[in-house]
Amino acid sequence: MFNNNAINFTLLTKLIRNPDFISEFKQNPKQTLLNRNVVFKQGLDDKLNILAELGLEELNMIAQLNVAESDVYENIGTGVIF
Amino acid sequence: MRLSDIDYFRSQKLSSVLLFLTDRCPVKCRHCSVNSEPQSPTIKDFGLFEDIINSLSLIDSVQAVGISGGEPFIEKRGLELSVSKLRNAEKRIALYTSGYWGGNNQNTWIDTVLKQVNTVVLSTDAFHRASISEIAFTKALQRIANADTWLIIQTILSEQTIDFVYKSLKEVFGDSWKEKAEINEIPLLSHGKAEKYFPLPQMKPLAAISKCTRSNSPVVRYDGIVTACTNESIIMGKGPNALRKQITQGTQLLDALISLSENPIVNTLSKVGPIALINDIDLDDKMFCNVCDVCWQKLI
Q: Which residue of B36, B94, B134, B141 could cross-link B25, Cys pair, CB 3.0 to 4.6 Å?
């Protein structure tokens, strides 16, 4: 689980539409997330690795999930596997 | 069988069962709610499995069976056996798949299975699309169309996936695709591999937690484990043992399903909701993220 005080998902939802960010992320995802201040606290290597392994579409989805105002835990399953 | 039909059967006690056919899946999605991998376990004891399917076929109240996993098409023997027997028993079948097999035209047995089921639920989203090419997915769509089986595309929508889904449906079915298919938008669930993507939960008091909506959807796993609901973590062995039973022969299946369906806590959480437990000493002053959290804390 992400501690959202340490990762700026709101910024990420904006950056992910920026062509420069997209280009940088494709080349070096980890460094881009650090340089762009998406992950901005020390000791978050595990979280950084989780984000850096994602594709852009997946990354956008996770960013949206983490800025959602709705309660993302409220949904206990709507037929994902049945 | 449309989504509304599936939802109806899932809402009625012992009207539906999810047959969890295998843990194995070749697709390696990073969000898999049941942690499926290419080397995950699958059916070993086919005697027990066939015995379970025979017994499931004989339960009159069960009208619809979802077949899922894992990727059911990775388990050819188990899938062919279960589809054949359940169809002969006049059960409605909804088959859940990623469509990874779409591009391989050699596996004609798949087309035979597609023709035997009532519904194919085909998943696509950013995570599936990272592993399954658009060509393979579209070919899977075409083969489902050829089988003339009702199609539900199940997706976590994003801009790119919306475009892809509509383009694929129109390409295969034409502008009148709604006569053959529908789209089911689903959320990302906080189970399995996806758990790590979620924010810290917002904890709430009992009175603010919604009712359980999944207590009428039991799961029968290929290895004889029967669970009270489709909570993915329960299916994967986590949570209270009161929500699962191990059967060793098919004749035990109906008793296991009935016993699980009569769990008083589960029934209270689904019929009245967590507010019914507001004076429960075990839960007094505690906070919860959802109804499953309440259920686990009460039953463990």
A: B36
What is the pTM for the complete model shown? 0.95
Query: What is the Cα gyration radius of chain A?
Result: 14
What interface predicted TM-score (ipTM) does this complex get? 0.91
Domain residue extents for chain A: 9-67
CA distance A77 to chain B (A): 7
- Which pair of structure tokens corresponds to residue B28? 């390696």
* Contacts B156 to A, Cβ<8 Å: 61
Instruction: Give the start-end residues of each E strand in chain B.
Output: 16-22, 64-69, 92-97, 119-123, 150-155, 181-185, 219-221, 225-227, 244-246
Dist. CA A67–CA B200, nearest whole Å: 12
Q: Mean pLDDT of all residues in chain B?
A: 95
Which residue numbers of A have CB closer than 8 Å to B's CBs? Answer: 1-4, 50, 53-55, 57-58, 60-62, 65-66, 71-82
Cβ–Cβ < 8 Å for B277, B81:
no
